Amino acid sequence: MEIHHGKLYTGYVNKRNEIEEKLKSVDLAAANQTYSDLRTLKVEETFAGNGVVLHEAYFGVLGGKGGRPEGALLAGMEKEWGSYEKWEAEFKATGMAVRGWVVLAHDTNDGRLHNYVGDAHNQGGMWGAIPLLVLDVYEHAYFIDYGSDRAKYISDYMSNINWKPAEVVYSKFAK
User: Fold this and answer.
1) 174 and 166 in contact (C-beta within 8 Å)?
2) In what order do the strands lie in the sheet with 112-118?
3) Residue 38, exposed/middle/buried by CB under 10 A (0-12, 13-18, 19+)?
4) What CA–CA distances, in Å, run from 120 to 37, 41, 104, 128, 156?
5) Which entry of 16, 72, 84, 106 is 20 to 30 Å from 166 by CA?
6) Residue 92 phi/psi, 5° resolution?
7) How high is the pLDDT of residue 122?
8) pLDDT value for 9
9) Residue 53 and residue 41: Cα distance in Å, rounded?
10) How distant, in Å, are the alpha carbons of 62, 70, 76, 150 from that of 163?
């Protein structure tokens, strides 16, 4: 976790700040869709920015005792998947299938919960979806401690969730 948070996450924060600074003076007249400094900076702005947002959400739910959420979030999961257990099975399986991220999100477009994926920070997310629970399955997140045993890492992640932050965010949107 020290390397993950202290170096990788911090690197995204620093790179995002650097990109934002460069955007202040980029040559707008040279912009085009094939290649331009503006295009490159804007693409990498979403990569670094989402790297920050996703890591903050990931670290923000760690340190709990697992279990299951309560209240509106649990009710929402049961409505969408039929049971918490069915949601958890899909979330874990999705973690085995994706290259980067699994995100339990409230999608403001349809008012439903979804398990979305992203193979890269700026690929796969849904506009208008609010992350509630984020699982980082890039190898850097688990390889030092788990080797190639991603399933064990995901299982341990599930037993270390603090559901309160996700419940608080969801309660702002649940109807």
Assistant:
1) no
2) 112-118, 101-107, 129-136
3) middle
4) 21, 16, 16, 18, 23
5) 16
6) -65, -45
7) 85
8) 81
9) 18
10) 9, 8, 14, 22
pLDDT at 3: 65
Q: Which domains does the chain possess?
A: 2-60 (1.10.287), 71-171 (3.55.40.20)
How far is the C-alpha of 115 from the C-alpha of 112, rounded, in Å?
10
How far apart CA 33 and CA 84 sit, in angstroms, is: 45
Q: In order along the chain (175 residues), what is the average pLDDT of each group of 10 residues?
A: 73 92 96 96 94 93 95 97 98 97 96 95 88 95 93 97 97 84
Measured distance CA(101)–CA(125) in Å, rounded? 10
